[in-house]
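Bit of a strange request maybe. I'm writing a small parser for structure token strings and I need a real example to test against, not something I typed by hand. Could someone generate the tokens for this chain?
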Amino acid sequence: MTPSAEDAAAGLQYSRVLDAPPELVFDCFTQPGHLTHFWAPKGASAPTTEILVDLRPGGRFETLIVNDATGATYATRSVFLEVHAPDILAWHEEHTGMTVRVTFTALPGGRTLFSLHQSDIPDQVLRPENRAGFATTLDKLSNYLHHLADGAKQ
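Reply from user aminoacidic:
Good idea to test on real output. This should exercise your parser:
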């Protein structure tokens, strides 16, 4: 199915229940040492040395995503709009014109409802392969959180 202009106007929503408290999930989204483990689709990586997080409204959020097979790179350049730890992050992507708002809602059992809404979406983000790629990023986040939890139990 090809997304329509209405999809771009309404935005895209991604939600997932994560097995970690909001404080940890928020930290994963705001600390380069965590971001490097999941902030790229499957088959790509984000080197820690190429992640900048100036965690304040007006602060920079920049990454370099590297295709692991070819070495091709994709730079992201964003400005934080909202920072309310551990509940809300929002940024505007200068490289796409898109705005992203993430909420981290506490659930029973130390879990988090992660919700991400993208608006002002460019055509390339609407492509099915890019949407599927973002889903693999969330898979990597979930796996990373399980790894952190397993390490804490040892």
